[in-house]
Amino acid sequence: MSPLLYSLKQGFEALKSIRNHISEANLPADFPRAELPPLSEDAKAELLQLLAPLEAYRIEKLETKLSRKKWAKRLGWLLCLPALAFDLISLASNHDPTILSLIVLAGILMWVHLPEMQYKRHYKYKILPVLLKKLGDYRYSPDSCVNLDSVADFELMPRFSKQQSEDHIRGKVEDISFEFCELTLKSRGSKSDKIQFKGGVVIMTMPFSFESHTVVSQDYGSLGNTMAGLKKPRVKLESVTFEAMFEVYSHDQHYARYLLSPAVMERLVELEQLFRKTARGSGLSIEFKANKVLIMASYFGNLFDTVDINLPTHDMSKIPQLQQELVLITGIIKQLKLDYLAAQNLATQQTLERIKTLAG
After folding, report:
1. What angle do helix axes 3-24 and 262-279 make, rounded to 10 degrees?
2. Band of residue 96 on the pLDDT scale cut at 50, 70, 90
3. 51: which of 183, 187, 220, 230 is 20 to 30 A away, CA to CA?
4. Is 275 within 8 Å of 281 (Cβ atoms)?
5. Cα 258-218-334 angle, rounded to 5 deg
6. Is the pLDDT of residue 139 over 50?
7. Residue 296 · residue 318 · CB < 8 Å
8. What residues does each domain of the chain span?
């Protein structure tokens, strides 16, 4: 997909996000919700033991932040006013406009919030490995990335020249491997790098291959879908909730409907809503090809930097968000496998019936 088309696609995602935030409130009351597996008392005790030493670090960083905030209010204007005057003089002199005042303001805000960012990162690195181990067969790496080469020829994957990644999680659900990371993809522009994608990426490797190439994308309308390069025939599904949020394209209409069973659609809708709520998400897209499933969730926040520096470290109210994400991802994996095994069983039964008919 070209950078121009991808930029247009992102614009349609933003508009779609507004509509979906409205439709989210109108989801049916009986719409299925993923149930969270409760943390054992042993797991909670181990997490609290890790969190206890962080309390002093939290207080130190909170005090530093509050002190910097106070000094920024008192002296920040000494930096901002001269910068603003320079911008106005440049504008009045018919020179190229400058944004020095914005740069200075951004620098001050970064300086004030840096202690909080340091605390969040430290908290995440301490807690995530232990929490993931308690939740299942998962491994955590702070700065690794998913295997992008394995999905390089996927339609959803934009062209890029630079990548930044963090919070890499990999593991297995039964015999299906998956990996996740938060990823930023950039391409070189004439003046600066352009962000082609920012959000979370999930890659699943199935023990079987899909019989058709299917893409599930945000619904941008007929014009937007054409600009986004979605050229496969559109698949009509029965779920009103799913149809309001997604467009499905595949060369095999029948197989696409089998692939997107009601249970799979329910989990995808729930995952999409989770990204919107917890990370200011703007859209979820899925691609099924060969033996891979690629999920790309565009969002502007950070899914795991949810800890509040103003709350004591023993407060674990944010931990269920991570549980929710893992439950939904593993639920999609399990459902895809169940549907595949059910189809295999049906095919075997039909074959045996044909053999009996021929033998009779």
Report:
1. 100
2. confident
3. 183
4. yes
5. 40
6. yes
7. no
8. 3-29+139-359
Phi and psi angles of residue 318, each rounded to the nearest 5 degrees, phi first: -85, -15
pLDDT above 70 coverage of the chain, percent: 79
Q: SS3 letters for the chain? A: CCHHHHHHHHHHHHHHHHHHHHHHCCCCCCCCCCCCCCCCHHHHHHHHHHHCCHHHHHHHHHHHHHHHHHHHHHHHHHHHHHHHHHHHHHHHCCCCCCCHHHHHHHHHHHHHHHHHHHHHHHHHHHHHHHHHHHHCCEEEECCCCCCHHHHCCCCCCCCCCEEEEEEEEEEEECCEEEEEEEEEEEECCCCCCEEEEEEEEEEEECCCCCCCCEEEEECCHHHHHHHCCCCCCEECCCCHHHHHHEEEEECCHHHHHHHCCHHHHHHHHHHHHHHHHHHCEEEEEEEEECCEEEEEEEECCCCCCCCCCCCCCCCCCCHHHHHHHHHHHHHHHHHHHHHHHHHHHHHHHHHHHHHHHHHC
pTM of the predicted model, to two decimals? 0.76
Strand partners for 250: 214
Supply φ then ψ for residue 316, to 5 degrees. -110, 30
Q: What confidence category does residue 210 fall into, taking pLDDT thresholds of 50, 70 and 90?
A: confident
pLDDT, greater one: 298 or 24? 298
Tens of pLDDT, residues 238-280: 788 888 888 999 988 888 888 888 888 888 888 888 777 776 7
Give the Cα separation of 259 and 221 in Å (integer).
Answer: 23
By C-alpha distance, which of 287, 261, 268 is closest to 341?
261
Produce one character per residue of 168-202: b if its CB has 16 or more CB atoms within 10 Å, e if not. Answer: bbbbebeebbbbbbbbbbbbeeeeeebebbbbbbb
Q: What is the mean pLDDT of the chain?
A: 79
The pLDDT of 26-48, averaged and rounded, is 59
